[in-house]
Write a structure and sequence with these properties.
Two copies of one chain form a homodimer.
Chain A lengths: L11 H8 L3 H7 L3 H15 L2 H9 L4 H30 L3 H27 L9 H11 L2 H10 L4 H16 L3
Helix pairs in contact in A: 1-2, 3-5, 4-5, 5-6, 5-9, 6-7
Chain A binds a DNA duplex (30 and 30 nucleotides) through helix 2.
DNA sequence: CCGTCAATTGACACGGTGTCAAGAAGAGGA
DNA sequence: TCCTCTTCTTGACACCGTGTCAATTGACGG
């Protein structure tokens, strides 16, 4: 349902109706809308085998390869989780729990960025001018969901273009030489 | 008031009270909350002399200088408009008019990016691999408000760091050589 | 047969936006 | 002085979405 509505405007009553159940029944399982949203993201992560997808990046032989694999993973993953991410992102403004849940996911993204940057650094391939910290911050920011949204929706980039150009961008920006 | 609350949680009643006027009086001047928000951004642009601030970038002698001046302008401007931008951004999800107003501002940002990229291209300084369009999209995305927010709030970058590192990033990514 | 558990119905509180109607206060002109 | 226009006030209300509560029903298992 979130996917059908771009992550917006899905109410508890809509969900209940779609599940063939009363609105109150939903509250018997999820105390708040945010809790339901968070459960949906967890479910999605499990269903999509988040950890498995990350394995390819972790197994990379070089820093640059790791960076590229990570961008490939992310470019493939974001569109799948986008709608629910969008909903969580919107809820964040008014709901403390949603903000925390979003923070967790962003921390995980940062871990991946950090690992890629450290792999680069260990190869001596981190471009001059960046510390591991600042490079991590940059990569982390490049991969933000709103940026993906902007590029694919407002700029009309395809998923493949996103991956290819993001690789170019990150490589030019962060990799030495 | 928006600045005091990070652009969130400011209600019509709060505004009225702060203005020493009844809530309904506000509605005599602005039909909707969004209209008031949009008026506030216009007011802010005029007060901050948006056009004047852009002049320095427009007067740049080279493409690279123009790019750098534009990033300096933006890095100085965003923190000043951030709270109201945040509010507009939040309203965008539920309000068509807010989405349109935001779209306008983003289009203006894009125009600036486009001009900088074309200046680079005309100098023959646009890095291989980018078309003017894709380079514009990239720069446009780098400067997005959520990214600025993320870097300054979540990553703890200062305004000066934002400008300096964004210049580095954009230069490495887009400028040849 | 009884207890438990999940679900149902219907009502309600709350918070925020936007609307409406009746009236008050002041300014300016005939 | 009176009249009118404009602006504002007060207070009520509709609407929407979330979350709560209470009373009830129906199925399943010991």
């Amino acid at each position: 349902m979130l996917e059908a509505h771009g992550g917006r405007g899905v109410r508890m009553g809509d969900i209940a109706r779609a599940a063939g159940v009363s609105r109150q029944a939903v509250y018997l399982h999820f105390a708040t809308r945010t809790e339901l949203l968070v459960a949906a993201t967890r479910h999605l992560d499990a269903q999509l085998d988040l950890d498995g997808r990350l394995a390819r990046s972790r197994a990379a032989g070089s820093g640059v390869e790791r960076l590229h694999r990570y961008i490939e993973f992310w470019g493939d993953y974001v569109p799948r989780i986008h709608a629910v991410a969008r909903a969580l992102l919107a809820a964040r403004d008014t709901d403390e729990a949603a903000a925390a849940a979003w923070g967790d996911r962003m921390a995980a993204l940062r871990d991946g960025c950090r690992a890629a940057v450290e792999a680069l650094r260990d190869d001596g391939a981190l471009a001059a001018g960046w510390s591991a910290d600042s490079a991590t911050d940059v990569l982390w920011t490049l991969l933000l969901v709103p940026s993906w949204e902007h590029l694919t929706r407002d700029c009309g980039w395809t998923g493949a273009e996103y991956v290819a150009r993001m690789k170019t961008l990150a490589s030019r920006a962060l990799v030495a030489g």
